Amino acid sequence: MQDWSKGAAIIRGEIVPIAEARIGVTDWGLTRSDITYDVVPVLDGAFFRLPDYLKRFAASRAALRLAIPEDDAAIRAALHAIVARAGLRDAYVAMVASRGTPAIPGARDPRACANHFYAWCVPYLRVIPAEVEARGARLWVSKSVHRIPEDSVNPRVKNYHWGDFTQALFEAYDHGADSAVLTDHAGNLSEGPGFNVFCIAGGRLITPRGHCLEGITRQTVLEAAAELGIPAEVRDLPLAEFIEADEVFTATTAGGPVPVVQVDGRVYGNGAPGPASEALRARYWEMTRRPALRDQVAYA
Ligand SMILES: Cc1ncc(COP(=O)(O)O)c(C=O)c1O
């Protein structure tokens, strides 16, 4: 009996349990981080905003000159097939395009590789665990590492260049924090390992413009703010302004918006999630239930 409860993958056109999915050791996705990916949620039996995630995935492939045989319709069909096969009603669903393996071993020419697509799904997961979300997260601003410059690795292309994030995470854990945020080389906020950041100051919602992924959750939060009449700004956000803000929260596909109650030594709102963050979080989850934004999975 195969165990599908932990998830499923599709690779080389074959659907397998997640534990059996493999890529080759000479694949440039592994040896060069020459790969891009995207992650869409399945919430209560339906994909949320799937066309937006497919669009971003296509833009990432174009930016890296990764050409896979599958078009959007084939990718959508593959994602539906693995989620239905695994029977997951709430899932974290990754779609990946890798450079592949050079036809001539050791070749340095990226044009010599057969680019390929694979996808996998696991039970819905949260970048910031639910118990941390319940009390509000504590973030640490990395002192030892900056976000990699955006003219070196484009952060709008979802990528596996996580060296800066991983170092910042170790530093955050060393200081008793739950996760990290990084600044760019000019001292502006960028993002954290797997999430965008927001703050509320003087009744306005502010999120960094550059040095970060243009998150789909970030976009949904900005739309939620418009609905709630909260003015929003997408611009450079100096660290000092962020630290002095009234409220802070994170946003990602893997968990939605999550309140932050502490950044470094600064405690926000007496250590409780702030009212504007809570209103936006509630509106976000309400938006995930809107039929127009959902693509229902046909389970067997
Ligand atoms: C580096 C980074 N920033 C931000 C995000 C949030 O983007 P999204 O809301 O599209 O998941 C992610 C991924 O989830 C990420 O990996």
* Structural class by secondary-structure content: alpha+beta
Please tally the helical runs, counting DSSP H or I stretches of 4 or more residues: 8
Element-by-element helix/strand order: EEHEEHHEEHEHEEEHEHEEEHE
- β-strand number: 15
> Strand fraction band?
25-35%
Q: List segments where confidence is low: pLDDT < 50 over at least 5 consecutive residues.
A: none
Tell me the CATH architecture of the largest domain: Alpha-Beta Barrel
What is the class of the largest domain in the CATH system?
Alpha Beta
What bound compounds does this protein have?
pyridoxal-5'-phosphate
Helical coverage, percent range: 25-40%
- What separation lies between the terminal Cα atoms? 18 Å
Return Rg in Å. Answer: 20 Å
How would you characterize the largest beta sheet? 8 strands, mixed
What do we call the CATH topology of the largest domain? D-amino Acid Aminotransferase, Chain A, domain 2
Shape: globular
Q: What is the CATH superfamily label of the largest domain?
A: D-amino Acid Aminotransferase, subunit A, domain 2
> What is the number of domains?
2
Mean pLDDT: 96
Write the layout of secondary structure elements.
Blueprint (H helix, E strand, L loop, with lengths): L7 E4 L2 E4 L10 H4 L3 E9 L2 E3 L1 H15 L7 H15 L4 E8 L17 E8 L6 H6 L1 E5 L21 H12 L4 E3 L14 E6 L2 E5 L7 H13 L3 E4 L3 H5 L3 E6 L3 E8 L2 E2 L7 H13 L6 E3 L4
Parallel strand pairs: 7-8, 7-13, 10-11
Antiparallel strand pairs: 1-2, 1-6, 3-4, 3-5, 4-15, 5-6, 9-10, 9-12, 12-13, 13-14
Helix pairs in contact: 6-8
